[in-house]
Design goal:
46% helix; globular; binds 6-O-phosphono-beta-D-glucopyranose; 6 strands; binds magnesium ion
């Protein structure tokens, strides 16, 4: 049976994509080009520096590493300012209820996020107490689709991969889960998340019964 749930943060538990977008767009404007919401789709689940590379390629710019470091820092300062105002009202539909259900059913929980800002977001939204382990972008050396973040989460929980289910909204995250040997539920659209074992619109559509059904497959 399933013993643990591993959650991505951005796009699964909270809607921070809009803040990442605001900050990247502001940076693009300073650099003199437009960055659309459609361009922003390519950044979901991608690490900060890899996101900057995608943004710069949209603007047709090639910059030195030290300049890139400075730009990434500038973007992050704006982002941190936006998320400092977040509260529990920004938890996505069904997320809190499902985390509570995990607790009531004795399932262990871990966060598996690429974001170095994950701890502040959990704190501001009041989600920290719902996690037995928190793996954020400061704790891994390889980004998704590398399975490191989920393997580390499972090992901290002391649960084998085959007893874990990952919740992800990004293709790279689903690949990471599969490479970790874990079952995976996609949150979003089957068009992009087809590699997941199941795809649902939100955590409101997930139950512990569904997890045990997955385990039997
Ligand atoms: C992921 C987001 O969770 O974290 C990406 O989906 C983001 O958009 C990445 O770039 C890194 O986040 P941060 O907060 O460390 O810049
Ligand atoms: Mg995500």
């Amino acid at each position: 049976p399933i013993q643990a749930c591993l959650f991505d943060l951005d796009g699964v538990l909270v809607d921070t994509a809009k803040y990442h977008y605001l900050a990247w767009k502001r940076l693009a404007e300073e650099l003199g080009f437009e960055f659309t919401e459609q361009d922003n789709e390519k950044l979901k689940g991608v690490s900060r520096m890899a996101s900057l590379d995608i943004l710069l390629s949209v603007g047709g710019l090639q910059l030195e590493d030290n300049v890139k470091q400075e730009l990434a820092e500038r973007k992050n300062n704006w982002y941190v300012e936006y998320i400092s105002r977040m509260d529990a009202s920004e938890i996505l539909p069904g997320a809190l209820e499902f985390l509570q259900q995990c607790r009531e059913n004795g399932l262990k929980t871990a966060l598996g996020s690429a974001s170095k800002n994950a701890p502040i977001i959990l704190q501001n939204t009041g989600l920290t107490p719902y996690f037995d382990a928190i793996i954020d972008g400061t704790r891994t050396s390889s980004a998704k689709p590398d399975p490191e973040v989920f393997l580390l989460g499972a090992s901290e929980l002391g649960v084998p991969s085959e007893a874990c289910v990952v919740f992800e909204d990004a293709e790279a995250g689903i690949e990471a889960a599969r490479r970790a040997g874990m079952r995976c539920i996609g949150i979003g659209s089957p068009d992009t998340l087809g590699e997941a074992n199941r795809v649902v619109a939100s955590l409101g559509d997930v139950s512990v019964a569904l997890l045990q059904q997955l385990a039997a497959e």
